[in-house]
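[[Per-residue structure]]
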Amino acid sequence: MKLYPECVPCMLQRAILFCRDEEEEVRYRVMRELCELFSKRVSPKITTTEIAYERNKIIEKITHNLDPMKDIKEESIRKALRVYPRIKKYVDRIKDDKKRFGTAMRIALAGNLIEFGARDHVIDLDRLEEEICDVINERLIIDDTDGIYEKVKNSDEILYVTDNAGELVFDRILIRELLRYAEVIIAPLSRPVQDDAWLEDVKRLKIDETCKIVPRGDFIGIWFEKCTPEFVREFDNADLIIAKGMGCYETLVDYPERFNGRIALLMKAKCEPVAKDVNVPLGSGVIMLI
């Protein structure tokens, strides 16, 4: 996705979040170097993913901290795990296969609320259960759940591309449903980046006990030029790809030649540029086949 002017203050806001525990002079240096980066690189010719990647590398170089959101991710996982048993029990009571699958999709979508630093979005972890229930019951502007369910039933291999660390807790409910129909391959990040799930988060939640794990790289979304070769092979061979979050949308739209109706995108449109790009109101839930 092209960089919108509104993306710049959001990226600076995230940078402040990444550096919140650093000394003041370090934060000044980060801001100086990022302002220099933006002054040279900001244009509609650069993508959000490219400039976010460059921003993150500058922050890592200055702070020497490769996981600046570790404490926030830990809190989000801990609070999600507290809610998880009740959400799982709710799904377990649903006997109809299609309805249970649709509910699991909504829960995985709701988990995408657990994101930190976006300028237009704030998540209250103390109201997490209520917010998930709101998403389960809301009317979606784009809802291709029925089409996705039909594709799942006819799939042998499904690739599941993760997003934020906290939402991974609720992804397990959808992954469990997918495993009723097909082999599921999980694609987290190879190392910590922002508040996204990476290999160790998947292992911590024991998802590796039921699914093959194929890390995809050290960037947000699906940036094919930087993906691991094994991930690209799995992407090309999978019958269906479940892609979570705005980062996946922002990167996938740059590869329209790969759209063939087998990518199921699940996200909350948590910022104005993405909402504008998808043509939905800010805050909308999206379950979309592309």
Remarks:
- The beta strands are 142-143, 157-161, 183-187, 212-213, 240-244, 263-268, 285-289.
- The chain has two domains: 7-63, 70-289.
- DSSP finds twelve helices and seven strands in the chain.
